[in-house]
Amino acid sequence: MKKKIPLNEIAYVKIKEKIMRGDFIEENYTSQNQLVEELEMSRTPIVAALQRLQQDGFLKVISNQGIIIQELSIKEINNIFDMRLAIELFSLNKIIGQLTEDDFKNLDEIIEDQQKCCESNDYFNFAHLDGDFHQYLLQVEDNSLFIQTMSNIKEKLFFNSTNFLRKRQSMMDFIQEHVRILEALKRGNTELAVKELEEHLQKGKLQIG
Hints:
CATH class of the largest domain: Mainly Alpha
Shape: elongated
Number of strands: 3
Strand order of the largest sheet: 1-3-2
Domain HTH gntR-type: 5-72
GO molecular function, one term: DNA-binding transcription factor activity
Pfam families: FCD, GntR
Helix content: over 70%
Largest sheet: 3 strands, antiparallel
CATH topology of the largest domain: Four Helix Bundle (Hemerythrin (Met), subunit A)
CATH architecture of the largest domain: Up-down Bundle
Structural class: mainly alpha
Mean pLDDT: 88
Distance between the termini: 47 Å
Keywords: DNA-binding, Transcription, Transcription regulation
Low-confidence stretches: none
Protein name: GntR family transcriptional regulator
Strand content: under 5%
Radius of gyration: 19 Å
């Protein structure tokens, strides 16, 4: 018998998805009443979900005012990108020469999907694919702690990233940077691949922050 998912868990997933999709970007605000109407759920599971999301740092519930979506501070973004630089550059150095033709094909496909998202202004899925590109390289290195850390970081950055990626030029720039990283990897040029990745992350740190 399939286990029934609690309503508060369903509410948690749906509200977090709405935050990450950028549904609240324009006003950075929502309310319990609005969520009750949009999710077609009772107030109890929504309140439980909001408490959990507040603990996770995605929003802040203010009595008699509503729910403020929490953007990362500049310091938090800088700290996250510094961690990404340490993890990703270390990992990339270790996997040069290990990538197979199938790996290159899979990375090419991620970039192709990003190009499609750019053409359709689908910044939500573009941001997901950006994370997939970086996560794929970590999976080749196969350090489970790095992979889990990056997965958590990805969620924290997502709201800020989707806001930034609403600019078409930003998406095009990210694609070209991924292409340059991948071309260096295909040539087995460790120094160039690391340089391109570092520049890509440093640029993201400045622009998203």
